[in-house]
């Protein structure tokens, strides 16, 4: 596997080839991919749903749970990249733009004025 | 902004600095970030929930909806990268590994044996 | 089983007894129950994610899928009722109140002014 | 409002009338309603996503948050009832059947053998 097959654009290409070889493209409407993305994000959350905050910070200590976490992260990223591909959205550019907006929207404050988001 | 600030690792670094400057790190347990990721994925799905498959393919033609789509994609990616950072998971490696497994799990078949996933 | 064990309040009581007998109450914080509710709602959505609108209307024709649908509906309702129990929210009253507000918020219009929500 | 308009069947009838009067039935495919249900469940979770378990137990003390909780509970129940109506599923019967199965699947154990689900 070439180095470029591991970056985001390379993975997006491999996902497209994978779907095309199986004739799965017809299922990949933006709506279906958004649904699948939210389903996979919930499967990631499921791992944590009954854990205390402290337990949730230690999930990678158990090899089986660590594998499950990596597997669900892969699924979330796979559907995010496929969603972005069908709508021609660049996720890195979208995030960079959002970070610029958020710098303005949430200015850094001195500790005394810092609101508790909860 | 340097070119490297736009790749995945660079964005992960900027997200970490953004949270640290606002003292938001204490909210960023793996459990909370997994919840936030699933909430944002649902906000993306919300854009599509009443659309036909055909309408869902045309969402980027409306500038306001296109902006909303990019904004929610950015939020999903932001929480995915922050989740991965706190648990030291590399999302690109996780996806590459999953793709290898899926090549074996879903072999390409001739058209006559191709199952309809629906 | 008495008739009253089948109404909403009766089911809520049986769910509480079920959790108490297994010492699961300590896991049932409002936050955890809200997460579990959203996870189960996604498992229901998963059944439909690759279906066309037409296929989605026929899911109950297949006995196995019909069982899965009923099973996920049960899980969603179970967590909704348990969430409402721990926060002392009456879901029927909440829905009746919302319906009153929505009658005002979305007045019935003549066909010529009816907006397309999509 | 008659007493029977407040029970589950009565609310289901009012929801059906509400949708029919606005010509929204064509949007109410099982797939769309399952998506909307999961979106509303996530909006409920959003209220809790940054809270500690302890803070999550006190949300009803703040009138504005309490209203938001009741409002999202209403939305979840509304879409669950509408989903069940279009597929002719009785949610109370489904839950009663599930409780029967779970009594067998998770037998009550003595404290010494009680597994920690986390």
UniProtKB/TrEMBL annotation, chains A, B, C, D:
GO biological processes: nucleoside triphosphate catabolic process
The record's annotation in Gene3D superfamilies points to: MazG-like
Sorted alphabetically, which keywords does the UniProt record give? Answer: Hydrolase
What domain of life does the UniProt record list for this protein's source? Bacteria
Q: Which GO terms describe its molecular function?
A: nucleoside triphosphate diphosphatase activity
**UniProt xrefs under Pfam families:** MazG-like (PF12643)
Name listed for the protein in its UniProt record: Nucleotide pyrophosphohydrolase
User: What is the organism of origin for this protein?
Assistant: Streptomyces corynorhini
